[in-house]
Amino acid sequence: MATEVNVPTLGESITEATLGEWLKQPGDPVAVDEPIASLETDKVSVEVPSPVAGIMGEQAVKVGDTVNVGAMIATINAADGAPAAATPVAGATTGNADLSDKAKDGTGPGPGEQPRLREGDGPAALSPSVRRAVLEHGVDPATVKGTGKDGRITKDDVVAAASAAPAPAPVPAPSPVPQVAPSVAASTGRKEERVRMTRLRQTIAKRLKEAQNTAAMLTTFNDVDMTAVIEARAKYKDLFEKKHGVRLGFMGFFAKAACLALKDVPSVNASIEGDEIVYHDYVDISVAVSGPGGLVVPVVRDADQLSVAGIERTIGDFGKRAKDGTLKMEEMKGGTFTISNGGVFGSLMSTPIINPPQAAVLGLHRIEDRPVVRDGQVVVRPMMYLALSYDHRLIDGREAVTFLVALKNAIEDPTRILIDL
Questions:
Q1: Do the beta carbons of residue 30 and residue 54 sit within 8 Å?
Q2: Active site residues
Q3: Residue 374 forms beta bridges with which residues?
Q4: pLDDT tens for residues 380-409?
Q5: CB–CB of 384/365 below 8 Å?
Q6: What domains lie within the chain, and their CATH numbers?
């Protein structure tokens, strides 16, 4: 007897998802509530648990297919009557164990060769991004230690394994063999790969384009001297981590400074709904963090009521769970203002795009030493460019500049944050 596995309810207003990867293959034993597949929605990845214990049966859909809520995607057979796993075809690579055996006896991929991968390689199927990384770096998955959930291999694991592997010894070039008509592909080595956009990437593209088409976007810049914040962080970071159990970064300072500036200029924290302007007496800051499928923006609720430690702890938790793919839908809904820190990737300056229905987004950039004038003297200071992109339908240039100046003053003199000035 087989039990159907259906797509669970994914959240308010979400009616469909894309099958990202199969975590179990036909014939694999499955425990009750054990994830068998991963679904990609507009915001996060959701694992589908097995409703019963048994043996993985039919897979009704393929990776990349769109499925509706409630649709059947697989069956689980009873353990006593389950069909055995399919016998591998002679000469075919069926899993990490086979790859490992072939690597031992010298028949696996050699230097410069790419390992042969199939959709169900390994006891836990590799995701499309991991398979692509394995092929690009020529890494044997059997030699990679997975750090993902349930020991699954992540793209970072593959890259780390490729970096740690010793460079292969140079092999003398074979004598050229005359060819009458060599192919273009062989002579140029040019390749193409088509990868279907994930549902998250499709949603990001759609929302960003909608923002450009709807809002009258403008970006205003300023720069800020980071000397005071850097000195405060260096002085107290060890005590801060010992007391609060979280590292003291720069985002806590900027979030608190932004809360002060938003109270001074409430239109930056407002939004447009139809022909009405909605002003918020609270500050919910959306913080852009990097996940496996791209940037996601979980929300720090009531940031104006949190301490620097509370903000750092919340952002740190978001960053960790974004990498694990365990952020919840409700944690990315709402938000009245966004902070995006491109500086962690080395960005010098950018014009971030607002996240509707929000009216503004603050872009942070890398810190670098630059010559500036202080008291008539040219000195070197750690400077950062700030960028505020905003909806000009709601926020005037004067208000945007006022916001940035208030933020700049709070960062250059952090005492203002303590005394709410």
A1: yes
A2: 392, 396
A3: 377
A4: 999 999 999 999 999 999 999 999 999 999
A5: yes
A6: 2-81 (2.40.50.100), 199-418 (3.30.559.10)
